[in-house]
Amino acid sequence: MLIDTHLHLDAAEFDADRAAVLARARARGVEGFVVPAVERAGFGKVLALAEAEPDVFPALGIHPLHTGRATDDDLAALDDLLGRGRCAAVGEIGLDHYAPGFDAARQQAFFVAQLELARRHDLPVILHVRRAQDAVLAALRRAGVSGGIAHAFNGSFQQAGAFLALGFRLGFGGAMTFTGSRRIRRLAAELPLTAIVLETDAPDMPPAWGRGGRNAPENIRRYAETLAALRGLPLAEVIRATGENACGVFQRTKDGGWRTGK
Question: What share of the chain has pLDDT > 70, as a percent?
């Protein structure tokens, strides 16, 4: 099954046509959508979308680039909502050592606190990792969380192996559609297929054919086609494998699985 494991469906860019965006994706065969929040202000909207759409699964978390305005009360609210059993994962959380003026210590504190929540609630995590692969891996080794996804993976083969050893899958999307993204395309072609899930990060990270525009979950099918071409595999095999990988990450959600799947 085709699953978009990382989609910001709550973003303002979709306010005018959200239902149509989902309809187009479903028409292209996409059967599941994981929507991670990035701060407390968005928790309610993400949960409401999941309540309204049976194939939308919510994740709640505080993104590293939003930790500057986050508080301990936000963590307490997150803890409470996670305890209600409605979430597929904790995310989007992690570290971003690329953005100008980042506060590494504050990002680390919120990341570690949210990893502890994920461990306590036995949920996978959806990771934002930018220029911080090794620091994220070090925190994961200490935390003992139940796996998850390294979103928009762009590390080395060695780092990929380290994430896999910790029970994580690696997210691939628009970046692998650019012929100039040689390292990412090599990773997509050579990593074990069991390591890979598909994602759009819509409305961000548009593919090569949509450069400069709004990304959308309907692109997941073409991402599967790109991955199949890179690996020399039948499209059906890639769709089956990446769907199974995603279900493996989120198997503890809601009724025990995807309501549109198993």
Answer: 96
